[in-house]
What does this fold into?
Amino acid sequence: MSNRELLFLSAVSAAALIRRKKLSPVEYMDTVLAAVERLQPTLNCFITVTAEDARRAAKAAEQAVMSGAPLGPLHGVPVSVKDLIPTKGVRTTFGSIAFADNIPDRDDVLVTRLRAAGAIMIGKTTTPEFGIKGQTDAPIYGVTRNPWDLERTPGGSSGGAAAAVAAGLGPLGLGSDGAGSTRIPAACCGLVGLKGTTGAIPYQEARDAFANVIAAGPLTRTIADCAVMQAAMAGADPLDPWTAHVEPLGRVSPALLSQDLTGLRIGYLSRSGATRTSADVAKGVEASLKVFSDLGAEVQEVRVEIDWMPEEQRALYLTSIATNLGSVVERLGDKTDPVLRAFVEAGKAYDVATYVKALAARTRMFRAIQGLFESYDFLVSPTITRTALAATFNGASDVVEIDGVGVGPTQPGLTGFVYPFNLTGHPALAVPSGWAADGLPTSVQIVGPRHADSGVLRLGGLLEQARSWAHRRPALAA
It folds into this structure.
């Protein structure tokens, strides 16, 4: 097997080869780390590379295989971890100079569970400062670039993880998604990205566990890798009240147990908080819907009027940033990201009444989405409204353009289809849907009822089978 083939091997396939003693974890890790060393100066997708620790772990993994020890489902497989997630003894900066020397004394539970499944961490991937925006750059490390086009962003805030996986720097990336931050990079980089049902896997890093809208989740090149990684992280955690009694991936609807989708009802969300979608993105969604229709599903455009609360979402988002991060801006000033500074200032302008009204709007939107699932089994929409923005796009002041038309700020102009499902807690999966005229990937989003995570993955798997994408590789990975 060539190094290129090895780098783009799925996690599931790599783990199977390792179990059968057909692939050395040490040789596999050396190949991945050599690729990281080669591509990191170009992509800038890692803040910290833990090469020595990874090589030691690979040697231990190989010894475990040879001795016949019990092996986890991801034994010997490299994984990268977004730098918002604490890792014991490994610098965790949150993308900010304020935490440039922060060395946690604990692993987040998700890191613990991935290690228990046999995965080996190769490093911490870049994130915008505190994960606040849909592009990945920060004063502490500079600009992260998209492997498909170095002048474009890999999305954010899990952009470093997405760039690494898309470039073959390990098959698994752990991201997090508070307003699309796993699905946006998946869409920009031609990957699978899952935001599970709130509570499907724990999220210990939430400041307000009870009102949490953030879900950590996988960034992978295949549906199978996504499912195995998600299952490895699932299970109740005493620090996350949403995880109690949640089944790891939820139950699969009987309608999904074969490739005959007759009777399955799919609602097409052509509009949301976003007002416009590019022709290339729309074409990819239509092709995906045709796959489901050809398998027997009934596809209908959703005509129900829903208040997608774009302004109220901004109020919730920006007041949280101002409250939690305002002190960092006050202390460090222009050493912080200008977008962070702008968001803090904007957040300070909201009053308590506006915030309380926004909470009520969130409840109304949740109930409206719940109502849709009385008529539809699943919802399908674009993931983001166009292909990746410029790598240097300024999320505080620049205007998103779609097919030459300015549509406004990134939220909701770019991300209007993703943020609602953080607020409602429904599982949402981004999967590749095709390729645009500019050579970049497009993406479709599959949304299910709460705790139907297996269902959205199953539909994603049917798309993957009908319109394969994992064989596509960026030219720079050659």
